[in-house]
Every structure is written in C-alpha cells, then in structure tokens.
Design goal:
Layout lengths: L43 H13 L9 H32 L3 E7 L5 E14 L2 E6 L2 E4 L3 E4 L9
Antiparallel strand pairs: 1-2, 1-5, 2-3, 3-4
C-alpha cells in the first residue's frame, strides 16, 4: 500500500487500478488522463487563455520572444485545420457508403458478435458521432467490418 511522507495511507484519487489502457466493466478503454472525449478537444479559447497566462507570468527582465507566440499560433491553426480535414474525410467516407452493402457488427452482452449485412440506407450525426443505418439498426463508424464491392454489371 502506498504511503505518504508523514506515514499516513495514500489514497489514489483516480482509483486503485487507475492506468491508461485499462478497461471498465463494459469493455470500453479508459483514458487515464481524459475521461470524456470532449475534454480532449482544444479550442481557440483554451489557446488564448494559455497565451494570456504566459504573458501575465513571464519574467519582464527576460521576456518571451514574439516569434514563439506566432509559431504556437501557427501550429494551433494547423492542428485545427487537420481536425477539420479529418471531420470532412469521415463525412465523405460515410456519405459514400449510402447504397453500398456493408457488414457491421455489435458485441452482445454475453460477448458474442452479432453481424448484420445490408445496404446502408441513411447516415446521421448524433451526439457528435457519425452513425449509419442498415435496415432498422443503427451503427457507429467503428462497427464497420467490411464494405462489399458493388456487383459487376454484365453488359451484352
């Protein structure tokens, strides 16, 4: 058992078995640093707050060079554009699935895999997640197992 410097017992605020890569009882991977996916997103406001904090706390006898801030802003802008590209790429991929035959799978409570094969008839964006529907079932993008090629047409 871990002990504090004063000899008292140490209680881990993140739980006794807290570590990156652990799974919870539902089998989902737990990120030890960010429990919520929305906490992983960095906004312009976050960047500006950090920059203001740096300006407030800098040593005025040895100020930070302006080029460092410009470089950081350029890197942040690049990161935002990459995030937008990833979003647009997912959107394009998902829209290309409409009308195609896919195999999607869900893991049942008992651990068995329930495969569904059919034509994607609609896509949606629900709770900041892309979803697609095959018949009356809705799936996440991560549940795609296979995208089948369109049948070859025989021309006479």
């Amino acid at each position: 058992m871990p002990v504090n410097f004063d000899g008292s017992s140490y209680a881990n605020p993140y739980g006794a078995n807290s570590a990156a890569g652990k799974t919870n009882t539902q089998g989902n991977v737990i990120d030890a640093v960010f429990a919520d996916d929305s906490d992983q997103n960095v906004s312009v406001d976050d960047f500006l707050q950090l920059m203001i904090a740096q300006l407030k706390n800098q040593d005025f006898m040895n100020p930070v060079d302006d080029t460092q801030y410009i470089t950081q802003l350029a890197q942040f802008t690049t990161m935002q554009q990459m995030q937008e590209m990833a979003y647009n790429s997912k959107t394009t991929f998902l829209t290309s699935l409409v009308g195609k035959t896919v195999v999607a799978a869900k893991i049942a409570v008992g651990g068995s895999v329930k495969r569904t094969e059919g034509v994607v008839d609609k896509i949606s964006f629900v709770n900041n997640e892309f979803k697609f529907s095959v018949g009356d079932q809705t799936f996440d993008l991560s549940q795609i197992m296979e995208v089948k090629p369109e049948p070859k047409r025989v021309t006479e």
